[in-house]
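Sharing a chain and its predicted structure for anyone who wants a worked example. Both blocks are below, sequence first, tokens second.
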Amino acid sequence: MNAAVENYLMPGGSASITALPKVSLHDHLDGGLRPHTIVELAGEIGYELPETDPAKLTTWFAEQADSGSLVHYLRTFDVTIAVMQTADNLRRVAREFVQDLADDGVIYGEVRWAPEQHLQQGLDLDQAVSAAQGGLEEGVDLVRASGRSIRVGQLITSMRQTDRSREIAELAIRHRDLGVVGFDSAGPEAGFPSSLARDAYDLLAHNFLPTTVHAGEAAGLDSIRSALFDGRALRLGHGVRLAEDITTAREDDENTYVSLGDLAQWVKDREIALELSPSSNLQTGAIEQWGDVMIDHPFDLLYQLGFRVTVNTDNRLMSATSLSRELFLLSEAFGYDLTDLEIFQINAAAAAFLPIEEREALSEAISVGFERA
């Protein structure tokens, strides 16, 4: 077990959030490495780290990521990607990733990563995907050997700034029966709307491979609109700035008027899941127009208005977090109870890139787990 995975309890109660069954939809492979693994792998390849003590390296990642800028936040990935350039290293990182998810109570996880960033030591795209899949499967086997259960799938990510979206879409389609469950687009959001990769999204749609798109994090409503209508997105990666399309006005001490714009209404009515990552959203400045502490996050507004909100970590290393910690922080800020936390997990199960029968079974497993809490 990874000692960094802590046991989080409900605020003011004894129920263990960590022990509850959970679904993780937005979690980057290169954002979830164990610090001591980075130190070991960097030593093997002679890569110079900013800190060689795992504890100090953990602090370095958190400090660098907590910048209020997505651009600065993304620079921390130079370190993690550098040690993920061989098949063996990809397998190890993926294996440990799954074990850490299971230690945090995750029973279904979608693992997103960009294979195009892992070709510096001779791997081709297909070899990289196969290596990661091998590690994921090893992790699942180790979890099962410990008497627990977890299922994972790959989300193949294209980096929107590299103009390789069509090639990466074809890669995802080739591996759809070999562990890949969907497609993602990430990287700098401003200046790179989904319309620039429309041919890739058309190809994915024609092959019935579902997509999620990073949108509404570093850019606003136009980015979300393009993700939905050019990117055919079934989920929004973050999507937090959809709250810009919601108007609230206090009528008196007891009543508040709320109005949804056309885009927000569309997302709500279609039950398009929002992959919200509270700590990350604070770190990158995605919610700066509303504030800079957890209670300022529009998560609760979106939840109370009936949007399909889900809770995610984004990058566990950079945000020094876990899914249980994110749920704890939200419960602490907004007074959520176990019923609320169960709804968040049911929302995630309903939005998972799985056949409907398997989504229903996942929801049932979540309900049973919460009943026992």
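Comments welcome. Residues 287 and 341 are 22 Å apart (CA to CA).
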